[in-house]
Amino acid sequence: MYRFHTTIHARPAEATPGMRVELAGHTVQTIDVDPTSLRVPCACSFEEAAEALSRLPRMYCEPDGSFVWVSPGNDPVWQVDGNLYDRDGRLLFVDLKGTCPAEAFDDLLRALGWPATPLLFQLVREAVFVDEAEFRRLARAS
Q1: How far, in Å, CA of 53 to CA of 49, rounded?
Q2: How far apart are CA 3 and CA 116, in angstroms?
Q3: Residue 59: which H helix or E strand, with range?
Q4: Cα 22 from Cα 102, distance rounded (Å)
Q5: What is the pLDDT of residue 128?
């Protein structure tokens, strides 16, 4: 089960390995990103992402981009809350908070254009960027 509070961006080509830091007992490889490169949108549009998300079972997606996705009701119970943000009609980033199995997380990422679009994850509370592999390791350990 993944546990997370993250902001997902398209990974800029200029992103490079950053410092290794200690977070909650884990050594984490961060990613350095020029903040201006985060203005580059994802490959899909806001509407395409919202439509793809709305096709997931038990997903409720509002026209403003806010959404909630819940488990089928059996154990374990999980929920993901999120919000899509756009710029000039393109998906700019996604805020996500919650818990879900890794397979469900993959379904959510596919709705955002993954794996064709490499992603960058900002750990909200820790205020650092990490790559997908590091994010998954930390989300699993939480």
Answers
A1: 6
A2: 24
A3: strand 59-61
A4: 24
A5: 96
Q: Pick out the chain residues at pLDDT < 50.
A: none
> The whole model's pTM is what?
0.93
User: Which contacts of 131-136 are long-range, i.e. CB under 8 A and separated by 24 or more positions?
Assistant: 131/11, 131/29, 131/31, 134/28, 134/29, 135/4, 135/6, 136/2, 136/102
Report which secondary-structure segment, H or E, holds 66: strand 66-70
C-alpha 94/C-alpha 85 separation (Å) is 6
Asked, as a colleague might, if the bond just before 115 is cis with ω within 30 of 0, I would say yes
Show me where the domains of the chain are located. Answer: 2-141
Query: What pLDDT score does 27 carry?
Result: 94
Residue type, 115: P
Structure-block tokens of residue 22? 């200690």
- Pick left, alpha or beta for residue 131 (phi over 0 → left; psi -120 to 50 → alpha; otherwise beta): beta
CA 33 to chain centroid, in Å, comes to 16
Tokens for 42, please give them: 């994802």
